[in-house]
Design goal:
Helices cover 41% and strands 20% of the residues. The chain is an alpha/beta fold and 281 residues long. It folds into 2 domains: 172 residues, HUPs (Rossmann fold, 3-Layer(aba) Sandwich); 91 residues, Pantoate--beta-alanine Ligase, Chain: A,domain 2.
Length: 281
C-alpha cells in the first residue's frame, strides 16, 4: 500500500492505473479506523481493482470546535489496518491541501438536510458535501463506499451525486456492531469504561423497539424509545425520529411508507453517538 499526501501525486498514480483499464473504488474516512471501516475497505477491494481510502478530519463539517479538536487521530494504526485489508492507496492530505482557500460553496438538499442532524448541527452537511465532492473530483472513482450508520449522510450524498451528475456508483454498507450490539464508531474510543457500559442501552433500546413496534403505533414506538433512553443512566437523548428511509421525513403511521427507519442521537457523557434501525424495508 502507498501513502499519498497530495492530490497531484494521487492523480498521477491513478491516471496511469486508469489508462490500464483499472476500476477504482473510494472509501472516504476521517481516520480512527475500526472494523466498521474495514468492512467498507474489504468490500471495495473485492469489487474494484484499485481501492483508495482517504483519511482526513474535515474541519468544515464540525460545528463544535471542541468536537473537532477531540476527534481521534491515529494515522499510523490506520495505515496498518488499511494495508491488512488490501487497500492500494491511503490518501492522507493536510487541511491546506484540501482547502488551499476557503470553500464558499453552498449545498442545499432540502428537505433531506433540514431534519435530524441537519436541524441539530447547522452547516454539518454543507461541510460533508464540500469534502466529499472534493474527494470525488480528486479520485474520480467508479464506486464510493459509505456506512449506513450515517444514514442521513448517505441519503444526502446520493442526492449530491445526482445533482452534480457524478458518474459513479454510491454503495451503502450495513452497520457493523460490537459483539454486544453497540454500533462501531471512532467516537467510542472517547468513552470511559462506565460510559461504554451505559452506551450499550442505545442499541438495546433500538432492538427492543423493533419488537415493540410489531404491535404498537409509530407514536407509541417513539415514546417507548424516548422513555427508555431518558430513564437510562448516563444518557441524554437529543432526538429519535421514525422516518421514511428515502425522504427522511417523519412518518405518522406504519402504512405511510414501505421503508421505515428509526434514527437516534444520544449524548453519553459529552460523546455524541448516532445509530439507526430499520423497521420496514
Amino acid at each position: 500500500m502507498t501513502v499519498v499526501h497530495t492530490i497531484s501525486d494521487l492523480q498521477t498514480a491513478l491516471s496511469a492505473l486508469r489508462q490500464q483499464g483499472k476500476v477504482i473504488g473510494l472509501v472516504p474516512t476521517m481516520g480512527a479506523l475500526h472494523a466498521g471501516h474495514a468492512s467498507l475497505v474489504k468490500r471495495s477491494v473485492a469489487e474494484n481493482d484499485v481501492t483508495v481510502v482517504s483519511i482526513f478530519v474535515n474541519p468544515t463539517q464540525f460545528n463544535d470546535k471542541n468536537d473537532l479538536e477531540k476527534y481521534p487521530r491515529t494515522l499510523e494504526a490506520d495505515c496498518q489496518l488499511l494495508e491488512d485489508c488490501g487497500a492500494t492507496f491511503a490518501f492522507a492530505p493536510s487541511v491546506a491541501e484540501m482547502y488551499p482557500q476557503p470553500d464558499t460553496r453552498r449545498f442545499s438538499y432540502a428537505p433531506l438536510d433540514t431534519v435530524m442532524e441537519g436541524a441539530f448541527r447547522p452547516g454539518h452537511f454543507n461541510g460533508v458535501c464540500q469534502i466529499v465532492s472534493k474527494l470525488f473530483d480528486a479520485v474520480q472513482p467508479d464506486r464510493a463506499y459509505f456506512g449506513e450508520k450515517d444514514f442521513q449522510q448517505l441519503a444526502i450524498i446520493r442526492a449530491m451525486v445526482k445533482d452534480l451528475n457524478y458518474s459513479l456508483q454510491i454503495v451503502g454498507c450495513p452497520i457493523v456492531r460490537e459483539a454486544d450490539g453497540l454500533a462501531m464508531s471512532s467516537r467510542n474510543t472517547r468513552l470511559s469504561a462506565e460510559e461504554r457500559k451505559n452506551a450499550l442501552k442505545i442499541s438495546q433500546t433500538l432492538f427492543e423497539s423493533r419488537t415493540f413496534a410489531a404491535t404498537h403505533s409509530v407514536a407509541d414506538t417513539c415514546e417507548f424509545v424516548e422513555q427508555s433512553i431518558n430513564n437510562a443512566t448516563g444518557l441524554r437523548l437529543e432526538y429519535f425520529q421514525l422516518v421514511d428511509g428515502n425522504t427522511l421525513q417523519p412518518i405518522q403511521a406504519w402504512d405511510d411508507t414501505t421503508y421505515a427507519v428509526g434514527c437516534i442521537t444520544v449524548f453519553c457523557g459529552d460523546v455524541r453517538l448516532i445509530d439507526n434501525i430499520k423497521y420496514k424495508e
